[in-house]
Amino acid sequence: MNRKKNGFMNGKIHMYNLFSIKLRHSRERMIRRLIILFLLIVCTPMCAESIPAKNGQEVRVGISDNDFTKYYFQDIEVSSTDDFVLIDKSNNTVICEFLANTPATVSMKDNLFDVYMNGKEVASGLGGPIVVSSDSGFIYIPNLKRAGKTAIYRGTFELTKSPSKEDMFSIVNVLDLQSYLRGVVPNEMPVKFGLEALKAQTVTARNYVLKPREKNYHNFDVCDSVACQVYFGAGSESELSDRAIAETENIVAMSNGELILALYSSTAGGYTEDYENAFFEPSAKGFPPAIKTYLRGVPDNDKIKPMKTEGDVREFYLSTPTTFDNKSPYFRWEREWNVKELESVLRKTIKTNSSTGFVKPAMNDESEFGNLRSIKVIRRGVSGKAVAVEVETDKNNFVIEKELVIRRVFQKDGKALPSANIIFDFSRDEKGNIDKITVHGGGFGHGVGMSQWGAGMMSAMGYSYDEILKHYYSGISIATYPVVLTNEPGKDTDSVYFYTKEKKAVLVVENKFRFSELIVAVNARQLHFELAPHLFKPIEIDLSPYIKRGRNEVTFILPYTDSQKKSLRLYIELGRTGEMKND
Predict the structure, then answer these.
(1) How many CB atoms lie within 10 A of CB 290?
(2) CA–CA gap between residue 216 and residue 30 (Å, rounded)
(3) How far is CA 527 from the centre of its chain?
(4) Who's near 179: CB < 8 A, 6+ residues apart?
(5) What does pTM read for this prediction?
(6) Element of type H or E holding 353
(7) With pLDDT > 70 as the criterion, what percentage of the chain qualifies?
């Protein structure tokens, strides 16, 4: 296909007076502002939305095979529930149009894409990426199952070459964040946990995508398995979780003006753990990593005493105190081995996990293990979680660090321990040698941040989603996703929508470039604020008198100034009031 190129006509460039340019820019922005404000103020509830909110950030999800083990493919069949097209993104040309439920086969050879329909070649030698798009249907891969049925997806598929694997490509589902969450939340948390728990899960899942701990993939942002967040697509959506997603639209958890790393796990066991006791620094795999003040270990109630001694840990995990996690099937559990069985396990797992760098000394051969003499937890976290375990044999002493490595070393029936909140007990024969080892444990997962079973219990007890989040994440605020405005064309206006049950909200303005004024329209009411020139301290403006229960619309307009490319960052904290400013 010939594509017409835009160009500039040759000729003399006239120099305009600087004042004239500024005046023209000022007029253009003034006209645009007047139009926006007219629509905001005059338009009745029956009018269409004056400034459409952004549908959300784009998310790129890597789609795996049925076993969640494979993310790169050499050929694939794709289809849609309605008519669809394949597009070569390298030149934005339509390759072929397909009828609903007609399979299209895409394969790769010599690092180029070929397309087939009913076994006949449609196109070959395409640079790609290849986009699969349907205006009205859900796209799918005919033989891909999720929860026992064919998985269907919103958005588009993008088949993108692997940067490191010859003749292999990724299947990337490209869609907006809200649609992505609809395929995540009911798969990460049982819908029966209730609306407020689902809202808390939605906020953590949104944070997880917007602020990942580390980026492990070249072609996509997040995978679709438990290695990231479980995403089954549109076929798994639920009415209640959809409501939770809608009613937390644009809402994130923040600390000191930044999105938090919203880690969560199935069951904390009644006491969550400090971040640095469970994770390493992603950039250098350093352990322990830097402290995160909002990821601190917290007990579920003030009757649970701190885990200062081995006796405290034993008392807690050998009992069933009242916590938010009590209903989890993994609240308390046991694993048991005879000595020969555990020795056989440890020979293999210590060798296998030595490559992580968290086993010292590393074991290169199983013969280096010998016979088991003792196992001792030599360092624990605030929840009693084992952070370092010493395994003594008649040949070596091995120190195993990091909770996930510890769980993988002490396998039972080929499965890692549910958590590292563990106590070891031993029975010995008449000669004093170990003959049986029992582990008593509590919880499932790393135990840092929100406990999903705990959130479910809190929801059932009447806690709101923000109360759930503030229990598990210390000192956070619940806020709208930050907006950045500049005086560049098209970037001086933005809108946010959010739900709230409380008529309390504070606008936080980071004004390091010292803008002097800001126009804010709250639910169609125009407000004009003069901004103080704070370089380091954010400005807080109380919007509570203008907030309503339910869905709110707030539009920000940055008046024209000479600070052409300078920025203003804003977000709205919910559930609190601040200093009132006159409009």
Answers:
(1) 8
(2) 46
(3) 34
(4) 56, 154, 155, 234
(5) 0.87
(6) helix 339-353
(7) 86
